[in-house]
Amino acid sequence: MKLRPLHDKVIVKPAKQVERTASGLHLSEHKKPDQVGTVLALGPHVKTDAKPGDQVLFSWQSGQEVILDDVGTRVLIMLDRDLLSVIGQGIDVKAEEPIV
Questions:
Q1: Cβ distance 75 to 13 under 8 Å?
Q2: Statement: residue 35 has pLDDT above 60
């Protein structure tokens, strides 16, 4: 299936979800979904600095999930304002430093 986002929509392929912890425990399907993905396409009226190929952080409740093929490839179609940050660009945030 081919998709072309309209207006202010963005198509994001979510990162593969981890089904086990490092110690081998299985995670519940009801856990909070991942919030990281790769931008695949942007609509013509998107007002964001993200571009196709960028890894982004997005709001966890955003997007409409779409299954593209029989293999189960899934993407999210969301509003551009649901993108929170481009990963690897901007300031260097360290956990021990307070954000002011």
A1: yes
A2: yes
pLDDT at 100: 62
Better-scored residue on pLDDT, 68 or 11: 11
Q: If you classify domain 9-18+31-86 with CATH, what class do you get?
A: mainly beta
Query: Alpha carbon of 4 to those of 10, 21, 29, 47: distances in Å?
Result: 9, 36, 30, 17
pTM of the complete model: 0.75
Report the pLDDT value the prediction gives residue 7, as an integer from 0 to 100. Answer: 95
- Torsion of Cα atoms, 29 then 30 then 36 then 42, to 10°: 100
**Which amino acid makes up residue 53?**
G
Q: In which residue are the tokens 């007002």 written?
A: 47
The C-alpha angle 69, 70, 76, rounded to 5 degrees, equals: 40
